TrEMBL record, chain A:
This is Pirin. SUPFAM superfamilies: RmlC-like cupins. It comes from the Bacteria. Residues 61-137 form the Pirin N-terminal domain. The lineage of its organism: Bacteria, Pseudomonadati, Pseudomonadota, Alphaproteobacteria, Hyphomicrobiales. Residues 169-247 form the Quercetin 2,3-dioxygenase C-terminal cupin domain. It comes from Methylocapsa palsarum. Belongs to the pirin family. Gene3D superfamilies: Jelly Rolls.
From TrEMBL, chain B:
One of its GO terms (biological process) is alkane catabolic process. The keyword Metal-binding applies. SUPFAM superfamilies: Rubredoxin-like. It comes from the Bacteria. InterPro entries: Rubredoxin-like_dom, Rubredoxin_dom, Rubredoxin_ET, Rubredoxin_Fe_BS. One of its GO terms (molecular function) is iron ion binding. It comes from Methylocapsa palsarum. PROSITE patterns: RUBREDOXIN, RUBREDOXIN_LIKE. Involved in the hydrocarbon hydroxylating system, which transfers electrons from NADH to rubredoxin reductase and then through rubredoxin to alkane 1 monooxygenase. Belongs to the rubredoxin family. Keywords: Electron transport, Iron, Metal-binding, Transport. Residues 5-56 form the Rubredoxin-like domain. This is Rubredoxin.
Amino acid sequence: MNPTFVLRANERGHDVISSDGPTSSYVAGHPGAFITRESSFNFHQYQAGRPGFGPIRVFGDETFHGAGCGYNMHPHHNFVICAFVLEGELTHINTAGEGTVDRLRQGDYYVFSAGSGGKHCELSISPEDMNAIYLWVLPSQLYLPPSYHRGHFDLRTRRNQIIQLVGDADGALPFPQDLRVSRLVTDRKGAFAYAPRSAEHGLYLFVVDGTLTCGDATLGRRDSLGASGVKTLEFEAADATDVFIVETAIIDDDRVRAWEKEQAEAS
Amino acid sequence: MSEPLKRWICLGCGFSYDEALGLPEHGVAPGTRWADLPEDWVCPDCGTPKAQFEMVVIGYAPGGPQLAQTA
Ligand SMILES: [Zn+2]
């Protein structure tokens, strides 16, 4: 089974957001700090990409550079926002519930459902770069009570198996949408299969590191693919491969179809 | 028959605009159509331009409309 689309690392949207100048109130850490953001889908200034995948609107690969870099306190509604920390340390201050000051390191992740309104601030305090994968998803209902959950993926003990981090599996963080995020980290070559709940569920696979082969497609570091209408997606992962697998309901998506048609006509 | 009233969501922050509710706190009367908001209207929470809102068909959680009216 071949993927429906392949998105190469260098085809993603690329933004550099400075803590100086017009974005200084938004980005913390002036002087010298800046955020780099690689977007798989349309986001902010980057509006040339695929409009999303099912209810997913943002899949961002972001790095905070420089001591004190991050996003100042800002509001959200409705979106369910996840961050999966790959490197460095993320200090996350969040108003949901009683409020939280959280510190997330490699393998840690959070799910923040902004619902009826919440604010958060995200900072990398040390001079070390902080790299995280961000996901923004439309919720199943508007104005849910805001919530914050955090989890940890143990990279050392949970190798060579697909582990669900977010969704309805035991131990996964709850998520107010028909969506599951899993992760696979290998230390040997292997063949894997992922069966979505139904043919109406799509899969988005993002290679953090390593090499993944699926049908005719070979993906390297930060390449990704989408597949929909599949019973089972089979793939091979090389030694030292790290992959996120997102499964979600592909709700009637006119925007994506219009975009795909435009792309086909332009080529 | 008139078009059903719609809901729009800001892709910058998730702020939602509901035609039925308007935004009385921001001077927009209930029943104001999306098309009737000025083209230079921006998200009251994050400044994202009107063009970067998306129409959504998503229902409210219990109590949501009351909270949305005063957003
Ligand atoms: Zn906004």
